Request: fold
Amino acid sequence: KSGAIDFRSEDDPTLWTEGYNFPALRDGRVAKDALPIGVPAGMSALVFNTRRPLFADQRVRQALIRLFDFEWINRTLYHGQYARTESYFARSDLSSHGRPADERERTLLAPYLGEVKPAILDGSYSLPVSDGSGENRQGRQEALELLAEAGYALRNGILVNQNTDEPFSFEILATTRAEERLLLTYARALKDIGIDARIRQVDSAQYQRRKQTYDFDMIQYDWPASLSPGNEQLFRFGREAAKTDGTFNYAGVSSAGVDAMINSLLAAQDNADFVSSIRALDRLLLSGDYVVPLFHLPTQWVAYWKRVHRPEVTPLYGYQLDAWWAEPDAAPPRP
Reply:
């Protein structure tokens, strides 16, 4: 604000929305831009541990996905600045979202069509959208229908297993206040249909230990992604990783189709085969409902004093400061 620095990259929605209202920006000496970027945002999500009996039933996972009211959370917590993450390679050309599977993908997926939702295969699938009011009536209704199919019923305001009378209850691990804020909001939505989701904030050492041994029901996690996915996908989603402590396969993904798509992308001989293999992998992971997808920034937020200039075209990888330049004679006053 004072001119002590020339450039700032921002990733806090509250600061971006409310923190840049100062004289130098209002009078045009500071620019505030949202720049395009084509690098995958990755998958930020609430991860089901499908090794646990409670989350082994895909209908249960689908129900909890419907109970996450992104539109209301985005509006009330993040000033409406986030985009919903609908792909493990969101924000990039590698994403399968909104794209029908091409012939290469269909050939790869042919032996595993039972693992792929038709709407995800044809590119018409999207995550549920609420009216943003905070009620999410349709989401709750659909969730209760799925949970009823899975053998759960509401009794005296508590969701219980119809055979055992055991309450539907689980624990979500958290390590930061920011995580806890989001998780408490989600837990309140679950409570509305009788689900007891307990938020437990633990220290970093305990959190790491429990992650490494998959000693959790649900965690918030972010799998970053690049434009050249490779062997790390086996460590994140491979069947062998699912039964090996210390991997990043926190969801417990154990799918022959997923393994085959990873092997296909590793063996790809040209870009077309590579992209088709990744999109096919994306479709299988999305079809498995292994996570409650969260959100990502759709652009890069930057603010800079006008003495600094940037190219008109932003590279695929986002802003590159070594391509920017400054005019020393136009330097802002220093404090």
